[in-house]
Amino acid sequence: MGKVRADAGPFARRPDNSAFKQQRLPAWSPSLTPYTVLPVFYFLALVCVLLGVWLLITVQNTHQLKIDYTDAGACATCAEMRNDPTKAKMNCDCVINFNVPKTFQGDVFIYYGLINFHQNLRRYIKSRDDDQLVGRKNSLKSPSSYCEPFAYDENAVPIAPCGAVANSMFNDSFTLTYHPPAGAAVNVPLYRKGITWYTDKNVKFRNPSTNTTLQQAFQGTAQPPFWQKPVYELDLDHPNNNGFINDDLIVWMREAAFPNFKKLYGILNRAHTTFSYGLPEGNYSIAINYNFPVQYFQGRKEVVLSTVSWFGGQNHFLPIAYLVSGGLIFIVAIVLTAVYVKVGRSGKNMEE
Amino acid sequence: MDMRVKPAEEERHVKANDRDYNERFTYADNHIKTAKYTFYTFLPINLFEQFQRFANAYFLVLLILQLIPEISSLSWFTTIVPLVLVLTITAVKDATDDYFRHKSDQQVNTRQSQVLIKGKIQKEKWMNVRVGDIIKLENNQFVAADVLLLSSSEPYGLCYIETAELDGETNLKVRQALTVTSDLGADVAKLADFNGEVVCEPPNNKLDKFIGTLYWKDNKYSLDNEKMLLRGCMLRNTEWCFGMVIFAGLQTKLMQNCGRTKFKRTSIDRLMNTLVLWIFGFLICMGIILAIGNTIWEQRVGRNFWAYLLWDELLSSAVFSGFLTFWSYIIILNTVVPISLYVSVEVLRLGHSYFINWDRKMYYSRKDTPAEARTTTLNEELGQVEFIFSDKTGTLTQNIMVFSKCSINGNTYGDVYDEFGHKVDITEKTPCVDFSFNPLMDRKFRFHDSSLVEAIKLEEPLVQEFFRLLALCHTVMPEERSEGELVYQAQSPDEGALVTAARNFGFVFRARTPETITLYEMGQPVTYQLLAILDFNNVRKRMSVIVRNPKGQLKLYSKGADTIIFDRLEPANEELMYTTSEHLNEFAGEGLRTLALAYKDLDEDMFDEWMKKLLFASAALENREERLGALYEEVEQGLMLLGATAIEDKLQEGVPETISCLTLANIKIWVLTGDKLETAMNIGYSCNMLRDDMNEVFIISSHTMLEVQQELKNAKERIMGPSRERFSSSQDVGKTDMYASDSVFEETIIAECALIINGHSLAHALEADLEQILLDVACLCKTVICCRVTPLQKAQVVELVKRHKRAVTLAIGDGANDVSMIKTAHIGVGISGQEGMQAVLASDYSFAQFRYLQRLLLVHGRWSYHRMCNFLCYFFYKNFAFTLVHFWFGFLCGFSAQTVYDQWFITLFNIVYTSLPVLAMGVFDQDVNEQYSLRYPNLYRPGQLNLLFNKRKFFTCTLQGVCTSFILFFIPYGAFLCAVRDDGSHISDQQSFAVTIATSLVIVVSVQIGLDTNYWTAVNHFFIWGSLAVYFAILFAMNSDGIFRIFPSQFPFVGTARNALNQKSVWLVILLTTVVCIMPVVAMRFLKTDLHPTQTDKVRLLQQATRRQGPQEQNLRRVRRTSSRRSAYAFAHQQGYGELITSGKNMKVHTSSTSAVPSSSPGRTHSSGNWIENMLKKRGAVEAEETMDSGVTEHIRADERSEDSLETLYTH
Known about the structure:
Distance between the termini of chain B: 73 Å
Strand order of the largest sheet of chain B: 14-35-34-33-15-29-32-31-30
Number of strands of chain A: 12
Number of helices of chain A: 10
Number of helices of chain B: 44
Strand content of chain B: 15-25%
Shape of chain B: elongated
Order of helices and strands of chain A: EHEHEEEHHHHEEEHHHEEEEH
Distance between the termini of chain A: 41 Å
Radius of gyration of chain A: 30 Å
Structural class of chain A: alpha+beta
Oligomer: heterodimer
Shape of chain A: extended
Radius of gyration of chain B: 38 Å
Structural class of chain B: alpha+beta
Strand content of chain A: 15-25%
Helix content of chain B: 40-55%
Mean pLDDT of chain A: 86
Largest sheet of chain B: 9 strands, mixed
Number of domains of chain A: 2
């Protein structure tokens, strides 16, 4: 406070006459007048309703098909096998038939969905080592303590990728077949690459740098205990889709926020003439390599086929929420107008 | 050396000039230290102090919890960053404060003093002065320690001091050394040989008491307070004096009185602490709910998951898991107890204090005094004041008396008339009378009626006699510093004003000796022989002098209360008496203090006879007073009336306007004064506190408890009148109900009453049985004036109101006698005026003029309160909205204490993303501008009623926060449950969800602060838009590739912002969330202003309307009503000064003549060495009596004592 001034004149201690010190800064004082509030309400109501309608129309034009295969049809036996600890490691395949009632136009995405799988538990989410996944050599050999108890196997060999998230990776695989009304069954071709975020594939996940093979880079590490194959052999068809930058691993490692989620499995390859417009209506079958056990936690597994719109997949929540909000705002706006006309405009309340 | 630590000093032994001896006792040296820390102890002590605060300790515990890996749901940095920031800010503030204390200590400690060391006077710093040292003091120097006066330059070892810094009194006090020591004089050798030993009381804080004995040369001399010069006094009118240090440094009475002032807290502070405790309880409840949820979940669902995740060995049981979860959630949800709350509040208050310091409209240019907020913790309470307790002298009044009017021989002078014969109001601009004919005039004197000067110039004998009387009949001491530059030392300001008036009108009182008075009458020196001073006392209510003029005529001049003088007039004066009496009524009606003047020619023979009797009487040992009184009475008969004077007790500028404005703001103003009833009432009328149109003025001035009770009861019944029934029925109900009904009553009572109570009655009324009824009556009255109250009673009254009314009290005063009430009241305001600094030092705010109070309360206080309340509402809202999202998420993530947001977001949300806009709002916001704040004082009402922030408000804003958090969580949840990106890849991952919610949250709270901000300065714009920009900048920075490559595990959100925020669906979610969160608030506010507009809303509307129309200066100056009440009172000085003058003791030059001239004055006849002791004794007796009367002991008496004088006449 005590700024000593050199000049000790008669008004030496007089405060400065600045707008700031005298609290006279130029300012804008808005207030909630009917002329600003009511138009804003009507405008917002209109915007919300219009957006809602537009979104609804968009959503109506998207298609989505869910196939719960947990214990459906032939998969029931596989489910039982997974439940039986003695047969847990045995391979099991099953086929499920389904019908696409209407052509899925445009890009079609195939997801696997899990119900009641808590990928969002604190200890689960933390149970990973981003240092390791970005290919740091030190972390590869000595994973972070967050990965416990999936940091080292029983022989004290470090696990790569370590942690519960990687360990519990979804490992069912699907083969989709189209049965046209006439002619032979066609295998539906899928892109199994390019299903991740660019940043994940190129920044967040890197393989340990190496001059030789990937297998050597991962030498001295063990595969996660639940896995059937090591990390460098995840995709035998595409050699550069292995290790930490395997698309399926990356997709799985992006933990879902809620216990029910779906993750991208593949995208319809429309290069094939049959599928150039999308997925035609008709009968399909899906062959599942059934590995992932969900019975422990009363979970469900499903395959989801879906098209997308400009704002994402089939999502009825947003259009409805917008319509409801728009409607409510409109009602409130009318009430406010009524109140203003009845009470406020006369200005009776504003009198002293 | 004897280093035993004595438990408590029981008796002090000090030997002069013997440092070795004195050092054995380890007395404190003269070094003072008020600073708390040194360079090295600062960090440990400050940290220790800071961690004693609940909030800081709480966050320390959190920090420790976060270091336990099983519990830690958040990284340690989320807590440590804000904590370190908070600690640093506080530490810097403490360090600056302490630095200034060090500096002022240093400045005091290095003052120079002259110490007698080894037979020589040497310069020493104050801090090196030791107990037992003999020091030399010179005129206008501060006394360095508590010193026993040994000798001085003045005769009889007298010494004058001013004790303004000590007790606030500006009048000079006399101290006298023992005769034996005063003989030492200035002889350094003798002084160096002086080896007396003082045995006295241990250090204490009683300023007016000292008991000790001096042992010297085998003799014992008793010592008392009259021989002590206390630290903090200033030597006046005394060339030099020598003294022996008895108490030094921290043991001086001054320092012992500087008790640590009680730490004042505002009601908002207390409420805030309660609320923080509630929130804490709420936090624990949430923790328990979530912990139970976790236990159940683990048992039902999680158990199945364990096999999957191999955690069975870690979590042996669900209950233990629940227990750990509890702590984890305590950590996550800790942000509901906002860590930055306390520090932000401090910052706001600091800002508000600066605005007070900077306010030019509270700067008093004449004294170059700006307003000063001496504490920075009470600002918002300034907006809640309901009771103001004001001192009178120096606060409401200037304590300056101005000769304003007079009546001479039936003619009044002093009014100014225009050419049409209408009376003109006298203002600053009214032309003054030109006194240039008189070279000895006082330039500051102003008089506006030139007819009086003309009368003087025409040499009208009665006019001359009038002023001659004023120049002769007084006890003023003149001091002529250089030729023609006269300064009058008057014991009472009234007397000074009269003599100054005479001086300007050409009757210059120039010099006096014990036997003569020299006047310059119209430039001619005339010497009168002073034969007797018939001194003033309370019974006589008049004073007279008997003089012989150069022509040899004997004259008696008398001035006094009008009724007293009128009773003693020659019958022939009757006609003049009536005219004068009318004039007196007129003067009194204008609130002026009046005196009547009369003279008498004395017969030589008769006088000689009378003089003999007087000499005889004054030598008498018994009944001396009475016998003298009777003799005085005998001679003061058959007086010839000259006229009357009217003196204006000048009010401070703008006092009536301020009081009426504050009254309109529903602030009750009580005047607590040490003055007499009549003086106080007179001021009450002139400040518009008492008015003619008041229904009733109750005056309580009884001496017994029963009478007081009866009077109070009567008063209450009179006020209550018809509505008494209702009141008495409500009396049976519990106390709190009664207050409620009380306030209802206060509203319904239309009658305007005033209560005036004097000190004696107040002492009874303040007892436990009567205080309730006193309070009832006082609160029913519009005006309360307590007079003749002691400082302690002032504090008791404040305490009473504080205790029973649950209202914020403010005490304002300027003198040391106000210190107790300033310290007791919630807010203490000191007038940095002429009465010394004691009050200012004890106060929380200080400024130079009473009228600034209006601005302090109605503008600064109101704004502060408004800002603080809005700030708190928003702060709690924001933190609830932010934190409770975790609670909702708990139900979906198995109560596993997973955070919704990124850890960095949690760390930065409160301190970076949302702190500055709300701070800017809290510093700059103005709901109504200052002109309108002053123009509509009832805008102050919400603060008094505590409407803007209370428990209900708190619930509303936390509820709003809870709702916002609910919407913030569930709209994105609904949208993300089945959402995918437009390229098909999924987006419902935890990180995208976190970014979406965080962005919505930041936008929603920014819009909300925008809604709460009434006054958008450039700073607000900058902070609000800047915060949003900073949020996005930091978000993208933290999600960038670069930072991820450096610390992969600390910034796992790489790419999330890019991938989430380029999605239209995410923005649709954010838009929807914002609209749904904000629109209900807007609608509610709109409805509220439409249906139940507050006063603020109305004034805002008005303000905006006028702004649109352009500024229209409305003149709202309230007309000052003058009272037509007839009252008059006289004044005089302290009794005993007549004796002092005639004894010649206080006259430096003419002391030799005292013994030379044969005595004709009664004062000189009795033992001359005793006069001052007599005087002191007399005064002591009066004080003792007063002290006993009021039933309290008090240490400090101030200006009012000078009023202990001629009784006032009071006629309705």
